[in-house]
Specification:
With 361 residues, this protein is of the alpha/beta class. It has two domains: 2-134 and 310-360, NAD(P)-binding Rossmann-like Domain (Rossmann fold); 138-308, Dihydrodipicolinate Reductase, domain 2 (2-Layer Sandwich), CATH 3.30.360.10. Helices cover 43% and strands 26% of the residues. The strands form three sheets. A seven-stranded parallel beta sheet has the order 3-2-1-4-5-6-15, with helices on both faces. The protein has a seven-stranded mixed beta sheet with strand order 10-11-12-7-13-14-16. It has a two-stranded antiparallel ribbon with strand order 8-9. Strand 2 (27-32), helix 2 and strand 3 form a beta-alpha-beta unit. Helix 1 crosses helix 13. It is globular. The model has no long low-confidence stretch (mean pLDDT 93).
Amino acid sequence: MKVLVLGGAGDMGSGVVEALCGFKVSEILVGDINYERARSVSDTFSRTIGCNTYPVKVDALNVESLREVAVGLDVVVNAVGPFYKYGYRIAENLVRLGLNFVDVCDDHDATLMELGLDQDARRSGVTAVIGMGWTPGLSNILAKLGSRELGLLDSIDIYWVGSAADSRGLAVVMHLFHALIGEVPMFLDGKLVNVKAGDNGVYVEFPEPIGGVKLYYTGHPEPLTIPRYLNVKNRVIVKGGLIPGWQTGFAKFLLRLLRVRTPGGIERLAKVIHRVEGVFRVGGLQLSGLRVDIEGGGRRISYIAMDRMKRLTGLPAALGALLIADGELEFKGIKPPEGAIEDPEAFIKKLEEVGLRILRV
């Protein structure tokens, strides 16, 4: 099996590479526009874990550069973020080349654009699962798992919490800012509506050491995709934030104070914050969390996962890629996780077998 990880030298991409190593993939290409970083990551995993990783220089935005490294690939995992900037353009190139792929797209606007490539992907014989990371990804599959037990659902409430001490990527900062500005889609009262990002804060309980944290509406894809595949009567929402909680408030304050409304403004502010992000990591938890509350028929199921952000993201992405490479996902086209994974229980079981603990409360 031969897998190419685009952005494999980055924060989340290296998590995908590590997860593929854990799944004993025979050949992993660490693809990055920065060859020296790709070589460093590849050498590290080859030396410390003993997996077969190989660095390749590739510009994922250039279809000819992709074509040069595409020979003999079974599947591609795209971890190049932020996805509102790069997701559609890379997905379009992969479809054009007829390459099966998984990505970890976590931006709602990019998700709609990628789903718009479905017909082209079918014509090219491409199998693709988008948003197969932490949230979206694990969140969608847990929602589907709960729906199998409860049937008709009243609501799916998805909560995520991240820590500056748990990630080092510029794209993560850019995604957070993008998710906290303007209006974002939520599924409320049985229909898709736009709400103000960063509003409607609620306190959500996680097990220690995270504990209680105030979370807000954030722009993620789940409200767009889940109602298409699961029978939800009333509500699908996503709320998220940072720990410690003051960091979310600080991010909202900066975005409001500086009137950041455009991708260019997001990138400029994110670069400033990223340069001093070490200050925010001091004393922080190297831990992130996901909680999915599912209600239906007068019953409620909650699933909670807490781990390093790169594991929460990398393990589902890697497993999704393996399912495509093994031919277990037989559809052609582009689907979100809840549309692609027919057996969520088996998927979760495989994640648990490699150490991702999921609590049911």
